[in-house]
Give the backbone structure.
Amino acid sequence: MNIRKTSLIYVVAIAYFALSFSLTYTRWKSHSPSLDYHAYVQMYWNTANGDTLMYNRGSENQYSLYKAHFSPFLLMIFPIYALVQHPLTLYFVFFAVISTSVIPLYFFALDKLQSKLSAWLIALSFLIYFPFAFTHRQGFAEEAFATPLLLWAFYLLHKQKPWAFLAFSFLTLSLRINMVIPVFMLALYAIAKSKYKVHGLFVALLSLFWLFYTLYIIYPNFNLPSERLYIAGFFSDYGNTAGEIAKNVILHPLSVVEKITAPEKLNYMRWLVGPVLFLPVLAPEILIIGVPVLVLNMLSSYPRMSHLWTYYHSSSLPFIWLATVVALERIGRIKIGRKVIVNALLAAIFIVNFLIVKNTPNGQHFPFSNWFNRSTHEVTARDKAADEILTNIPTIYSVASNYGFLENTAQRKWQFPVANFKGYLVDLVLYDPLALTGEALEIPDTDKEYGRLFTNNLFFLFARRDLIKKYSIGDFITREFKNYDQNAAYLAASNPSEKLPTYSGMTTTRVVDINNIYNLVQKLDFANGNPAVLQFPVEKTELVRRVKILGVDFLLPKRGTGALKAEILEGEDFEKNYKIVYSKVEERNELAHKPSILSIDLSKLQIDASRTYWLKLSMETNTSGGVSLFNSYKVYLTKNDESDLRYSLDGGKAWSGNNYPKQSLIYSIAYDSVKDTILTKGTPQQLKQQLQEMTKTSQDYKDVVVVGAVTEKL
Amino acid sequence: MMAKKDKIYWAVTLAFLAGFFYFFQTIKPPKLFENEAPRDKSRDIFFGSRLKGFSRSPNKINLSVDAMISEDLLNIKLNAQNPANDTFDSNAYFYRVLLGRSYPYSPAIILKEFSKKLGAKDIFELEFPWERIYLRDEKAELYLHFNLYRRNGSKEPSIIATTTHSLLFGQ
């Protein structure tokens, strides 16, 4: 291989790796969840701590991954995590391997089409082919490694390297049990179409043995005879055991045909092969290698298996694209204008894929797309505040948190989603009332088992009451620190005030608009005297115009005018008899497409908590240039029977309390001090030193709450 | 005729695969308790009725726990016997009494944590009340676990013996 001539494809692969990893890094920093990645991080952390591939699956028991999936590949790449025990290490390896997919595809196209331009068009089209992007950009799953591993296996067979073909076939088998199917099919192809029939036969037998070994040796080691196999759950419409499922599929062929020809299943196939102009049907001997897994996906009782916004099709993609190349080679055999026809088809494939990701929701992972999901990549000050909390929780504590934070809390034995918090007696609960995805939120009962440790940026941190001990900082420094295990790390919280911040409510009930038409006024409830800081969340929304062309939604961004104005009014009647004590127009650039916290320093406003104050949110508009398109903002409401919230539907001319009865704007108020609660972690000696430093620089902090059990010496 | 290089490759491949398949069939789920039997089929389903008499302390140390529920208090009785010649030093080992909704190793309310030396053939009993501050009105079946742990430096301590007693609150 001539490096000088071919090195650019390696550069493209590296660039794809850099782009994918950096986007995932910002996604992680912005606490946007990515499927089950948190569970894999927990498995790796447990493996590094002696419990191989164990995780607690959001439950109160520990499970081995091999109970569900026999994936020895995860242990083969584990040494890299053992060297760098960071939550993103696994993603780093994942993208490094996935990004190589384009290399064998490029060289295969170069061999077959004998044109660099054609090979480049294939490679670049593949990189913007959205079913490929979703296999690894939506989240992590070991099955997604199948795309590069099978592309390499096929290409190395084509290059007459049978041992390398065998090695990559073995690696593919080691991903998950369903990889037996494409590897077996590829082996049949090797027997029929290559001169390495013995190697093909060996791989075919190996895949059959793999199936037997997984079903009859591995799974019984990790499952009870009475338990239904995890993978059988994907086909529960047909039975509970592998035999029952196979029998029902064979005996009911008509219902199988009916299922795989349902409109949504045909649509699944259309989106897979449509972007390559259905050309793979001209190379059926290659396409067929990837088809059985797709049929299995379509037959599944679990609808997500036949969705393209996941990874279940990752072992079929290589054969769709390899078949496209072979189909183009066959088209190129015609005598007149062969290169022009092939490259015109390839240009059409590139343009089709570009238009799909540019203009449809399938482009949400591509930064150049109109549908690029900015909110999942924006890192706000609130995200940094979340990291302050997350990095201060020692790994020894069990933690429940919203889905978005699980990837940050995964390096511990016990992690739970707050979505089904009820029933767990976890040590700490980090609760975000503004969490995405409409999680069915369960919050700890703070009158009973849990106590609130910390509130800031509308994050709430709770600890189980038996773990909470409050000391004066002086007492802790001089003697109490000695009662704790001197080798263990503890969490401590120091509050500048005896009063914890109060808040209007903890669960978002709805999100409402603030713009040139819709305005909001909220009466502020001061539960204590001496209010110091008011905080409330706001997010901005983008203006877009939708155009439907040939059944595809086109989304065109529009530029609007208008900035959010926040005011505090003093007086019983906010419409007539009031005084403006605070007014600020917020810079639109400072806000994000997800909740940003606006803070108002009340200590400077001479607030008298015995009087009435209102927070008014409206829009500062400038329409001097004529009719304009107006921006819009969103604020969060919560259930609150005592609240006085007024909403205007005509830009503040008339107000009503009936639009959102018994609702309140979500806000919190801190008292006495504008300083925040300080979280620290460390051994008792380290906590002592940190508290000593703190008291040297500030006299505001008097008490410390330490989380952790104390061992009595009897 | 097969080339010499191919013969070596086949031999290496077969040896590797034999080793691979042998190795993975030896892997079993990690033990959740140090004294657990290597293949304990009851473990995954002991939650529920089988948890009531659950105990994992063969040969090394025998723990027992009992409790009475009154209106405001839970009166707990502990007993630990060491039938062997090992010594459980109070710096390396400690005990925890937990009240939880499931397994002895799951997160639960810590009612008492203490350390006490237990020498060879030694025995101790301990009785203490726990004020039912936030379980006063609860109607539930909860599990009282009495566990012995060994400290692991800065890492999570290991459970080396446990016993469980079920309690019906508010019935």
